[in-house]
Specification:
The protein is about 30% helix and about 20% strand. The protein is of the alpha/beta class. The chain folds into two domains: about 190 residues, 3-Layer(aba) Sandwich (Rossmann fold), CATH 3.40.50.150; about 55 residues, rRNA adenine dimethylase, C-terminal domain (Helicase, Ruva Protein, domain 3). The strands form two sheets. Strands 4-3-2-5-6-9-7 form a seven-stranded mixed β-sheet.
Length: about 270
């Protein structure tokens, strides 16, 4: 197995694929440690690239390891890892945004990924719709996106993404990574975030919450009586002790969950 630095040198990251390869061995180890325990789990890694994280994952007695890599140049280097693990090893040359990853392998499942920033949000939203299929998601985001995931009401970065994530998952910031931890170094700081499923007292229909938050935040400086018109009956605001003069950023995640229960496709 070639040293990681040699693999990275041979591949040369493609800007078109949003590739920034993790090269710091200490950070690679910290990420996998943060996602532990891996024993007996199905581990899904998205965009493994040269296999930095993969090399750390195969050190653990996983039940299965599934790597999804779109860049076919990386496949020969990743295929070599199969000889160094006793886990059920699968390597897929595919675009992860097109795959039902929540059905891959058997539970418990964990996702560990240094996500390409250009597809990080679409992938996260797809996984959140099936969050109960995963034990945890340990993911790398651009710091700006991570801040939005964890934002609180009445802050400038609180929005739809904040509500959708926090309604379905506990979101925890693990640590930040400087650009120098990657090759080539990105122009932004990165943040490792872990999401674990929330234990819900009742089901929150995805379409309902998605529709209500989209309407409420569509013009975030306007009042709810304007933005929610035609989405939910404004009488439900009074029922929930919410003022029609509130703006979307004033509402808590639970407020949005409660509002979404009043939405129907026929509203």
């Amino acid at each position: 197995m070639l040293p990681l630095k040699e693999v990275i040198r041979a591949l040369r990251a493609k800007k078109s694929l949003g590739q920034n390869f993790l090269i710091d061995p200490n950070i690679l180890q910290r990420i996998v440690t943060a996602a532990s325990p891996l024993e007996g789990r199905t581990i899904l890694e998205i965009g493994p690239g040269p296999g930095g994280l993969s090399r750390e994952i195969i050190k653990h007695p996983c039940a299965a390891i599934i790597l999804v890599e779109q860049d076919s140049r990386c496949l020969p280097y990743l295929e070599e890892l199969k000889e160094h693990t006793q886990a059920n090893f699968s390597l897929l040359n595919a675009d992860a945004t097109t795959l039902p990853l929540h059905t891959f392998g058997t539970a418990p499942r964990k996702v560990i990924a240094n996500l390409p920033y250009n597809v990080s949000v679409p992938l996260l939203l797809a996984w959140l719709q099936h969050i109960d299929a995963f034990e945890s998601l340990t993911l790398m985001f651009q710091k700006e996106v991570a801040d939005r995931l964890m934002a609180s009401p009445n802050t400038s970065v609180y929005g739809r993404l904040s509500v959708m994530c926090q309604a379905y998952a506990k979101v925890e910031k693990l640590f930040e990574l400087p650009p120098g931890a990657f090759f080539p170094p990105p122009k932004v700081t990165s943040t490792l975030v872990q999401l674990t499923p929330r234990k819900l007292s009742k089901e929150i229909p995805w379409k309902a919450l998605e529709t209500v938050t989209k309407a409420a935040f569509s013009q975030r400086r306007k009042m709810l009586r304007s933005t929610l018109k035609g989405t939910v009956s404004l009488s439900c605001l009074e029922t929930l002790d919410l003022s029609p003069t509130n703006r979307a950023e004033d509402l808590s995640v639970q407020n949005f969950i409660d509002l979404s229960s009043y939405w129907s496709p026929l509203t």
